[in-house]
Design brief:
Blueprint (H helix, E strand, L loop, with lengths): L1 H39 L4 H45 L10 H18 L3 E8 L2 H8 L1 H16 L8 E5 L2 E7 L5 H15 L3 E3 L2 E3 L3 E7 L7 H24 L1
Antiparallel strand pairs: 1-3, 1-6, 2-3, 4-5
Length: about 250
C-alpha cells in the first residue's frame, strides 16, 4: 500500500516539475517575441500576438491533459488502496486465514443454508496444546512460525479456504458442510486433523511436536445459531483437552 501512495506522490511531483519547466519555456519565448517585435516594428505585432496565443494554448492544453491523467491515476490508486485495506481487514495478517469477523459471517450463512436446504453443518474449534511453552522456551518468533505451520495444515482440510480461520492467539476454527458435517465423518476429520497437526517440525533447528485439542458443535434444532454451535464446540474442545491431559499423565 505504501508503494501505491509513493507512486501517487511521484506523479504529483512530476506534474509540478513539468508545469514549472513549461512556464520557464513560455517566459523565455515571450521575451524573445518581445525583442522580435521591437526589432521588426509594429507591422509584425499581430503575428507576434498570434504566436503568443498559440504558446499559451499549448501550455494550458498540456496542463489540462496532465491533470486529467493525474486524476485518473489517483482514482486507480485509491481503488487499489481500498482493496488492500478491505483484504487485510478480513484476514489474519500472520497466517493468511480468515479472522473472526468474516468467519462468523460465513458460519451464519452456512447455518441459514442448512435450515433452508436441510443440509448438515458443523464447526470445529482447535486449540493448540502447550503453545505457551513454545513461546517461553523458543521465543515468540518460534511461536509465530508454529502458528503459520499449523494454519497451513488446517487450511488443507477446508473445502473452501475461507471456511478456516484463526480466531485469535492459538485458537482456530473450521466449518464443515454437507456430508463432512455428519457426526461420524466429523469425528473422523478431527482424528485426521489432530494427526496432521501433530506431525513434528523443526523451528530454528530445534524439533517441535505440536498438538491440538479439538471440539465440534453440530447444527440441530437445539443449536441453530452460530453462537450455539461455537459454545457447543468450545465445551467439547475442553473435554478433549482434559482427556488428552489424563492420557499424557497416565
Amino acid at each position: 500500500m505504501s508503494q501505491l501512495i509513493i507512486g501517487s506522490r511521484t506523479a504529483v511531483l512530476t506534474i509540478v516539475l513539468l508545469a514549472f519547466l513549461l512556464s520557464l519555456v513560455f517566459a523565455a519565448e515571450f521575451d524573445l517575441l518581445s525583442v522580435f517585435e521591437r526589432v521588426s516594428g509594429a507591422g509584425k505585432r499581430q503575428e507576434i500576438e498570434f504566436k503568443e496565443l498559440l504558446a499559451i494554448s499549448g501550455i494550458f492544453s498540456f496542463l489540462l491533459a496532465a491533470i486529467a491523467w493525474l486524476n485518473g491515476r489517483a482514482a486507480v490508486t485509491d481503488r487499489r488502496v481500498r482493496q488492500v485495506l478491505e483484504h487485510t481487514a478480513y484476514l489474519d495478517p500472520m497466517t493468511g486465514l480468515s479472522n473472526r469477523r468474516p468467519f462468523n459471517d460465513r458460519l451464519v450463512s452456512a447455518l441459514a443454508r442448512s435450515r433452508r436446504e436441510g443440509l448438515p453443518c458443523a464447526v470445529l474449534l482447535i486449540d493448540l496444546d502447550k503453545f505457551k511453552q513454545v513461546n517461553d522456551t523458543l521465543g515468540h518468533g518460534a511461536g509465530d512460525r508454529l502458528l503459520i505451520a499449523v494454519a497451513d495444515r488446517i487450511r488443507a482440510f477446508a473445502t473452501v479456504a475461507e471456511d478456516a480461520a484463526r480466531l485469535g492467539g492459538d485458537e482456530f476454527a473450521l466449518i464443515l458442510r454437507g456430508p463432512s458435517a455428519l457426526e461420524d465423518q466429523a469425528r473422523a476429520t478431527i482424528d485426521q486433523l489432530q494427526q496432521s497437526i501433530a506431525r513434528p517440525l523443526a523451528i530454528d533447528g530445534r524439533p517441535v511436536q505440536p498438538g491440538a485439542s479439538i471440539g465440534v458443535g453440530f447444527f440441530s434444532d437445539a443449536t441453530s445459531r452460530a453462537s450455539d454451535l461455537l459454545e457447543a464446540a468450545d465445551r467439547d474442545m475442553y473435554r478433549d483437552k482434559a482427556a488428552r491431559r489424563r492420557k499424557a499423565a497416565a
